[in-house]
Amino acid sequence: ASQVVPFFTEFVNLLGSSLTPLVCWIVPIVLYVCCHIWTLGDMQIGCMEWCVLGFEVALSLVLMFIGPYLVLESIIDDWESFGAPFACHCEGIWATCDCSGSHPGMEDLCSAVPTL
Predict the structure, then answer these.
(1) What DSSP character marks residue 111?
(2) Whole-angstrom Cα distance, residue 31 to residue 29?
(3) How far apart are CA 57 and CA 29, in angstroms?
(4) DSSP assignment, residue 94?
(5) Gap between the Cα atoms of 106 and 87, Å rounded
(6) What number is the average pLDDT over the span 5-13?
(7) 2 Cβ neighbours under 8 A, 6+ residues apart
(8) How far is Cα 13 from Cα 5, in angstroms, rounded to an integer?
(9) Taking all residues of the chain, what is their mean pLDDT, rounded to a whole number?
């Protein structure tokens, strides 16, 4: 699957930066607060703990927007080298002058070597 999508690494980064703060920080905090309220109704969450929980939620929300923004920016900047998903890309693996004319051993076979 990673060979079909030319920007596979960036796609994984996009998924990770989008979902990791939600799954690893926000969901556990919400579950903790809900469990605390439902089972330990007598004990209240202290002010300092609310501040820490609020800071962690705020940080995770910031990361959920900044991370995907930076990854999308990287994908857009490199789109010309990536090309569209599932498109046929010349990877220099075929022995044709169009694809591999500048590779060692192909100079003799190809009359016009493309310049990089």
Answers:
(1) S
(2) 5
(3) 8
(4) S
(5) 25
(6) 83
(7) 8
(8) 13
(9) 79
Q: Quote the tokens at residue 61.
A: 């929300």
Q: How far is C-alpha 23 from the geometric centre of its chain's CA atoms? A: 15
How many CB atoms are located within 10 Å of the residue 108 CB? Answer: 6
Show contacts of 57-64: CB within 8 Å, 24+ apart: 57/25, 57/26, 57/29, 59/21, 59/25, 60/21, 60/22, 60/24, 60/25, 60/26, 61/21, 61/26, 63/17, 63/21, 64/17, 64/18, 64/21, 64/22
Q: What is the pTM assigned to this prediction?
A: 0.63
Q: Which two tokens stand for residue 6?
A: 């030319």
Residue whose structure tokens are 């690893």 = 24
Give tens-digit pLDDT for 58-93.
Answer: 999 999 999 999 999 998 888 777 766 655 555 545
